[in-house]
Amino acid sequence: MKTELEYLNIYQKKHGLKRSRQRNRILEIFLSTDRHVSAEDLLEMVKKKYPDIGYSTVYRSLNLFHKAGIARLVEIGDGVARYENALKQKQHHHLICENCGRILEFTDPKVDEMIEKNARKKKFKVTRRRIDVFGLCDRCRAQK
Ligand SMILES: [Zn+2]
Ligand SMILES: [Zn+2]
To answer: What would be the CATH architecture of the domain defined by 93-143?
Structure first.
């Protein structure tokens, strides 16, 4: 299996982009978390280790990781683009809290089978599957 850095290098080569040490550092930080991070979240994490890296570099790098297939876009309906590691994590589904934005993940082979079965019936080839379920998390429900 290829590593994330190999994916990045292949993508950069294909698109005539030079390798960049800063971008590799941002990738290292991105891969160190299991969270779903926005460019702002990632910048905060990057700054702790590499204070000289700025927002636009982080923003552009994250976009590039997305295009290279390393980062998967997660939208929770608040207009903020968040990303998670697309390669390391198994395909999973999301329970998204509409109040605080918390994202809980779950996997369930039965759900995946159900999707495959329905897709087959319609002669549809599934390449990715993800279900986003919206609601209120236990913390937010306890507050009400
Ligand atoms: Zn919540
Ligand atoms: Zn996720």
So the answer is: 2-Layer Sandwich (3.30)
